[in-house]
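Blinded run. Sample ID left blank on purpose so nobody reads anything into the name before looking at the predicted structure. Input follows.
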Amino acid sequence: MSTRFKFILVIAIIAVFGLLVTILVDIKNTYVELGSVKTELVQVKSEFSQYQTLVQKVNEIDHKFTQELTDAKSENDKQYNNVINNIASLQLNNSKPNQTGSAGMDDANACELTGEARQNYYLLRDDIITKDNQVLGLQSYIKNVCLVEQ
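Blinded prediction complete.
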């Protein structure tokens, strides 16, 4: 074998060895990165699981208070329809003190609201029911979701 051929062979062997070392270093770095990605994946799965639990709690709270709101509004509508159809009456508490000086006046007449005032009364009741339910729902959300995370 000639010296030139031996030199080329040694250079080729060194080049192949260098290439193998580079490939092995790249493989090692890939495994290190893969381990890091696996760790991040486990963390993301854990966070996703916690998120799903929170979403489930929020959905339960929403369902509960939506059902309560629907029931309360339905009851309010039923009472309103009963008053409109003269099945029931809207009773008002009169806090007016008895006046003994007017013998000719009859204070025994029933105190009633006009039709519009009666309708406004039930609309206001409906708004109060809605706001009350919203506040209770938000309080439940704060107690069962926001404060649980801390």
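Unblinding after everyone has recorded impressions. The radius of gyration is 40 Å.
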